[in-house]
Amino acid sequence: MTNSELKYAYARKLMLNTVGSKQWCSGCNGPVDMFGDHGLCCEPAVRGLVRSVMHATLVSGLRECIKDASAAQGPHHRTIESMGTTEPHCANYLNHNGTMVRVIAREGEEIKEVKNRLDTGFKILDDDENVTQTVLIDATITATNRASYTQRKKYSKGEFADRGAADKRKEYETSGWDVENPPSGITVIAFAVESNGCLGKEATAVIEYLANKTGGNPNKIVHNIRQTTSVHIMKGRANQTNTNVKMSYTNHPRPEPREHQLTARGPQQTARGGSQPE
Asked: What is the pLDDT of residues 37-66, one digit of tens each?
């Protein structure tokens, strides 16, 4: 962790104020909570940038876990091959509106028509190191302080992450990519994580699978992978808060427009007892 990441992560862990005197949001002009989580669910704020910061950190940790699982098997008996930092093109693996669309990149050409990509993935190999299955992973982070979630009276562990995974699948369906019925040998995983660090069912299944393939004590390996993932989530939350404090949060709320003040308070009285026209 950098000094900035450690500062905010440490403050969050001890439930300290992470926003200082900047307790107002410049986007919606509403109050900000002491942990700075307001930016996760505030549309007028820099939500897109903030979510991108957290998302990039999570994907980095996920790629690291896949790489470690592949390296732990040794070079002579691999059953997992990491895709590295490559973002798989949907068109190279999935059906679009029922028809396979495969993009062939020619040397020196840019592929402009491909807009949808997944975050990472890995390939499952047989004893002869032939690819038998390709697992494509798209990570998503669900803010647990969204109004639609906080209105619920009861909370089940990982519930919001599973809802986030379902929403992610709907996004691909809206874009025309069939993730529910992919071609043979392709599996699509929505690796959903709640903003408090809890993993969804699909994410948990991926971690357990990687642990079982690396050899050794699966429970210990699952613990190590969860620990690595948790550190990257913590770094993402720290970067999220830091970004909001710099770009979205302010010391004072925005002043109301004068027209709104006159309407809300009524006509202002003049020194002679009359009133100013609206």
From this structure: 777 777 666 555 555 777 888 888 888 888
Prediction pTM value: 0.71
Phi, psi of 247 (to 5 degrees): -115, -25
CA distance 201 to 57: 20
Q: Is-contact 232 3, C-beta < 8 A?
A: no
Contact 37, 21 (CB under 8 A): no
CA distance 62 to 236: 13
Q: Tell me which residue of 199, 223, 202, 228 sits closest to 211, measured CA to CA.
A: 223
Residue found by looking up tokens 């299955």 in the block: 133
Residue carrying the six token digits 């062939």: 104
Cα separation of 190 and 200, whole Å? Answer: 9
Range picked from 34-38, 121-125, 154-158, 245-249 for highest mean pLDDT: 121-125
Read off φ and ψ for residue 82, nearest 5 degrees: -75, 145
